[in-house]
Amino acid sequence: MNWNETAKAFLDAYRHGRDVPGGLLFAKALQQAKLDFTPHSLDRIDALLDQIHQKIRPSKEGFIDDVTKRNFALMLAFYLGEYVAKASGSLIEWRDYDETVAAMPPDAGLPREFFSYITCTVGGQLILPLGYIMERLFNGDTKFVAREYVEGRLDVIQADQRRDLNVWSKEMLDAFARDGYVSGGLAYRLLLRQAKLDYSMESLDRIDALLLKIRGEQSPEYVAFVNKTTEQNFLSFLAFYLAATVARLGSFPLKWYSFDQAGKVLKNLQFSFETTQICAIGKQFYTPLGTLTEILFSPEADISCRRQAEAILRENPDRLVSIPTPERNQGPRGALDLPANWAIAVEQTGFLAATSIFMVQGGQLTPTSLEPGADGNATLISHMFEHPGEAIERCAQQMASNPKSLPHQAFVYDAYSYLPTGRTDALILEMVAYKPKPFRISVALPYRQASANEDFALQDPILLDCSMAKDFHPEIFAQFYKGIYSFKSQDFSWDECLIRPVNPVH
Length: 506
What we know:
Radius of gyration: 29 Å
Distance between the termini: 56 Å
Helix content: 40-55%
Largest sheet: 8 strands, antiparallel
Mean pLDDT: 87
Structural class: alpha+beta
């Protein structure tokens, strides 16, 4: 059965006062409810369901087995789904239980129940309108209100439409750390506080215990839980925290993707609540929400946050390398000396780094390239009259082709860097030296713009890529800082601007 066509046929039949195949119980009462896609129609649905509950005391089993009763429930479900789709300006897709489960991770644990008989996705969100109908019609729960149900779905969809997950993750983690407000509310805040979330492996044990405590004491239902904003925020927060903890412990870059964004890379990705937030840790993709929902809802969960973290740490060999300041760079500088041209190239790149950090204090940096002159001095070229994207692309092409046969060149641009602490403002430095053989490095310069509450600050540079073995790193770093400290200004000190991140990258 094509449920999208069925939903359309039902709603068309209602609009024109026609019957549906198999018949429709309470058809007259439904017409009197005036399902006209206004907020008042939601109030009338509440009143209709309350009246049926009080007079008939219906059962879930009877509504699934009797076609006329099932069609009544389906009509209301189709209407609620369409209401959310219209109000959010989003497309809607309907699925039955088997289709929904097939689109979800195998460990999602969606039970075969009345509320999961049909589902829909609107704006990338999984919605189970039969869950609302079940609570009101069979359980007589007058607190489960149609307006709040619809508004809750709209809040989530509209927030997702304008939300960058990388920004949202940082906002949620920062808000919790300062005991601030989380948009939409955050369930179990006190229990989270008691879990002492300090980004340690032991804190993941405490999260496992917290989830098992909720599961054991409250026996939460999957559908009701993931469709309530405060509980959904609780799971999202824990997903962000779990990924951030792993990234910090392993010194991995961390980047978040929505379902649509991830789907461009992961071609066979299936939509579910668990895939609305996907993260890349290192070069691997993970669904932390899947780990959390399996612990919370699966009766035979064979996973924990700690075990998931340990597995990710094993699977990711590529770790970010911090370029420490000289006083923190312990031990000898290394047994390998850099070729003379490489040493000059790295030193001048360090000078470009300090110059660019000095300039970015006044706002966004214009893409800037560096070219060495015949006298050994470097010339900085600002691409202020070009579109930033075009300037970056042109500089990258010039570095690849080296049309002027330069011994080395570099360029810097303002962007974001994905660090273990999340998305961060950063300048990105690219350098290539061509002789005696090609040598490339790429460096991120994380910084924090000044605000009303905080001064401008920068963190230790991060080595994103280097074509030479680690044995060369001490000498490369020494030359890089030699260039940094060669930049002189009365209005700027690299060391005075430097701060240490909460969990520094090693």
